[in-house]
Every structure is written in structure tokens, then in C-alpha cells.
Amino acid sequence: MRCLVIGASGYLGRYVYHGLKREANSCLGTCYRSHDSEFETLDVLNTENLIEIMKFKPDVVVWCVMDANLETEISDNGLRRLIELLLPETRLVYISTTLSSGKDQTEEDKPIVRKKDEYLADYVNGKILGEAIVKGHHNHIIIRPGSIYGFDYFGKKDVRMELLNEQALSGQLYTRTANLYTSFVHVEDLATAIVELADHEVTGTINIAGERPVSHYIFTKHLAKLLEISDEFITADYRPDAEYRTLSCVLRKKILKSSISDVKTQALT
């Protein structure tokens, strides 16, 4: 199996790349800005770059590209062109995001397009467009992960960990909502599931997250535990009504052998 990981230098992509490198006969990873000699430089908006990288003739392409500000353009001009270059039998693994709202969202739930002034509008809408484009290639699997967390491949803190650590050092209280519930997934668990799905016959869409969603308050206390810092500065507030942005894991549990850990809530109050 020959695997191509586009976006291999990123937070998730690097875990996926190294996981596939252990499993595949040959694995090629790409980066955009990183000057990492381990990867090939690729601008997905440059057609000539895409044509050149596809000379690798991969059996599997994993799309780990994520850009908060350019996702729509990347999907429309980069992803679309890539799919035109794929052989019909080439497997495409597309990493999307949570695209709807509500409790226990299934893979059949329709994505909700965000207004331009909403948080991460271009990113979410770009992923919605990306999914629609990917569905035009038969041998595809779209992965909708929960909110991703965990140390990166080199052991560095993720963005939320960095923010939490800064708050701890500031000596100020940090308030998080105790009745806003989200599905989370550890970055290493997600990468393991992606590696499994790269060499799997299933097509379509699949949610990947821990089975038990938790509140943002409890999740933040969990991060403090991972950082081995006190959580006494983390306080709770409440919305008038509980809100859920959670994923159903029924299909994932039927299909995957890989285990997805839940956020630990023992001894967290």
C-alpha cells in the first residue's frame, strides 16, 4: 500500500503520517510552510504542484489540510483539482469536522452552513463544500471528528493547553460553561482510527469521537490534569438551557476495531 498524506506536518497530520509509515509499504507526506526535510513541499492551490506529487501514484490519499481562513478556497480549487487527478480505485480519506449541532448527531444529519460573521465560518463552510466535492469520488471515507485535543507529536501543548497554562500563570479565575456539552477525541486516538480507515472497505461518512461527551467545564479540568497543574482556578458558569454539540458513535463502534478513549471525569468536580 502506497500512502500520500497531504498536510503531514500539521497537528493531526504528523500522527497520521507516522502511523501509516509503520503500516504501509511506502508513505509520502507533504507540508506547505514547514521546512521539514521529512516532507515534500506542496501548495494545494498550485495545479502543477498537485500533478507532480501525484506521480507518486498512491493507493491511498489522506487529506489532513486545515486552514481557518482559506478552507473554502482550498476545497474549491485545491481539493477539487486533486480529485480530478485520482484514479477511480484510489482511496480518499477526508478529514472534515463537526458540521451540525444538537445531541447525538448522526452521519446522516445535514450540515449547517454558518453565516459569514459566525465563528470559524469559512472553515466550517469550507469543510461542508469539501465533503460535497469528495462525495464525487466513489472510494472515499469522510471523517467527522469531535473536538481534537492532546499534546502534539513532539510533546508540545495544543492551543487550548497553552491558553489554559497562561490562565493558570496569570492568577486569574478561568470560567467555562458547565452545561455546554461537546464530543471530544484525543489526537492520537483519531490518528489511529484514520490509519485503520485508510485500509478499509467502508465508504461514506463516519463520526470519530469518545462515546461520552462532557461539558467544557469538565473538559478544561481534564486538560489541567494532563498538564499536571491545579484546577482550582477553573470555575463554572451556566447557560439558561443546556446545549449539546455531540456526535453519535453507533456507526464507529460497529465498524472500527480502534478504541477511542473518553475524557476522564473521575475525581473531577
Give short descriptive properties of this protein.
single chain; 269 residues; alpha/beta; Rossmann fold; UDP-galactose 4-epimerase, domain 1; 2 domains; seven-stranded parallel β-sheet; four-stranded mixed β-sheet; 8 helices; 15 strands
CATH architecture of the largest domain: 3-Layer(aba) Sandwich
Note the quaternary state here: single chain
Number of helices: 8
Count of individual beta strands: 15
The strands making up the biggest β-sheet line up spatially as 3-2-1-4-5-7-12
Instruction: Quote the distance from N terminus to C terminus.
Output: 47 Å
Supply the helix-strand structural class.
Answer: alpha/beta
| Element string (H = helix, E = strand) | EHEEHEHEEHEEHEEEHEEHEEH
What kind of sheet is the major sheet? 7 strands, parallel
CATH superfamily of the largest domain: NAD(P)-binding Rossmann-like Domain
Name the CATH class of the largest domain.
Alpha Beta
Average of pLDDT: 95
Radius of gyration, in angstroms, nearest whole number = 19 Å
| Beta content | 15-25%
The tally of structural domains comes to: 2
Low-confidence stretches: none
Query: What does the overall shape look like?
Result: globular
Helix percent reads 25-40%
